[in-house]
Amino acid sequence: MAKAKRNRPGVIKLNRKLPFVGAIFDYIETGKGLAKAAKILRAEEERHGVFLVRLPDSDYVKRSPYRTLSRRHEAKFLGKCLFPFLSATELILDGGAWRNEHDILDSKNRALSASWRGWGDILAQWANSFWHPFPYGRRKTYPLDNNEPKSTSGWTYIDFYMDGYAGPWSIKNYDHWAKSVVECIKYKTEKLAA
After folding, report:
1. How many other C-beta atoms can be found within 10 angstroms of the C-beta atom of residue 73?
2. What pTM was estimated for this model as a whole?
């Protein structure tokens, strides 16, 4: 599994050798190829049993029309489906970039129930196990389960909570990346529905 590359301390370059990442950056640079990126995303979804959908009338107050995964199924889904999908796509989006308007479904159309914070925690679990090491050593954080600070050297939910919370690290061209990935999910949902 390829690791994300760093081009200078704190700036992480996504792996353009991954087909989805390459297609999104081609779209960013040329303005063409959104359909290609959506087809690649769709193929990765089918390969891993993970489906990203844009909700019809996106209003964060409204509830998702999908049933949610049980805790037992969620743990299995993360390990067997979502984490391999994230490794294949590097679909790194902060909660604010997309969680209000989208759902993540399993192969039985059950939704992953994750708030912005919950999504940040899922990405942190994945990043600590399969992605790039946190680039800046130890720091104090506040875990999800209590208010007592602890020292950690890994990714935490706050690093993926919302754009601007990431502290000293960043993904190169993140704003363009996030906007383009959200456009790709919308295109895929509207044009490539199964």
Report:
1. 14
2. 0.84
